[in-house]
Amino acid sequence: MSLFLDVVTSSAVLFIVATGLLTIFGVLKIINFAHGAWLTVGGYCAVATTQTGLSPWLALPVAFVVGGVLGILTERFIVRPLYARPLDAILATWGLGIVIGQLITLIFGRDVQFTPSLIPGTVDVFGTAYSAYRLFALLAAVVLGLGFAFLMEGTRLGLSARAVIMNETLARILGLDTAKIRTVTFMIGTGLAGLAGVLLTPLTSVDPNMGVAWLVGSFMLVMVAGESFGTLAVACLLLGGAQVVVSTYVSPILGGITIAVLAALILRLSPKGFSRA
C-alpha cells in the first residue's frame, strides 16, 4: 500500500510541476526553460511568508501573483520579440533562468532553507500511516486537472486558446487578440510554476538551484505528453511510477534519471509521444 501511495502522490507532484510548462508550450509552442527559476521563486515566496510570521497558506496566492506578474514582464519584453525564432526564445528563457537564480542568491544567500508543512502529520490509509501532506498534493493535482479541463472547455479564454493552438493565423483573421491570449497564457503558466514551487517546499529543501532538479523531468514529460493535459497525467503516472519503483528497489541515483531515459525511448519509438497513440 505504501508503494502504491508513493507512486500516486509522486505522480501528482510531477503533474503539478509540469502543468505550468505545458500551459505555455501548448499555446506559445516554446519550451520555457526558465520554468525551474519560477519554481524557485515560488519556493522563496514560501520562505519569505514564513519568515514574516504570516500563515504558510498565504504563500500560495502570493507565489501565483508574483509568478504571474513576472511572467507578463517576461513575455512582453523577452519572449514576444522571439516568437518567430523559437530556438532563440528557448535560449533566452534559459539565460533568464540563470539570471533569476543569481538574483535569488544575492537576496537570500546560498544557504538551504526549510518551510513548515502546510498539513503536518499522517493519515491512516487502510492500515498504513501516510503523510497527510502528500495526500493533499494528490488532491491538489486532481483539482488542478479538473480546473484546467473546465478552463479549456467551458470558458471564453479556453476556447480562444484552443483556437490559437489549432490555427493561430485563422484565429487572428476571425478577430481574436492572439497577442493578449499569448500574454495571459504565459502569465498563467508562470503563476502555476510559482504555485508549484510553494507546494514543493514541504517535500524538499529550498535553495537557489531548487528548480533545476525538476526542470529536466518536467521537460521530458511535456515532450512525451504533447499538448494534452490528459496525456500529461498519464505520462506522470507511468513515468513517475517507474521512477518511484526504480528508486525504491534498485537505486535512488538511477531513479533520478528514470524519467529522462524512458521519455527518450518513447520519443525514439514515437516522435510525437503519447499524443500519437
Task: Give a description of the structure.
The chain crosses the membrane at residues 12-34, 54-74, 86-109, 129-152, 181-200, 212-239, 246-267. With 277 residues, this protein is mainly α. The chain has helices at residues 2-28, 35-51, 59-79, 86-108, 132-154, 156-166, 168-173, 178-200, 212-225, 229-249, 252-269; strands at residues 122-125, 128-131. The protein has one domain: ABC transporter involved in vitamin B12 uptake, BtuC (Orthogonal Bundle). 74% of the residues lie in helices and 3% in strands. It has a two-stranded antiparallel ribbon. α1 packs parallel to α5, α2 crosses α8 (178-200) and α10 crosses α11 (252-269). The longest helix has 27 residues, at 2-28. The mean pLDDT is 89.
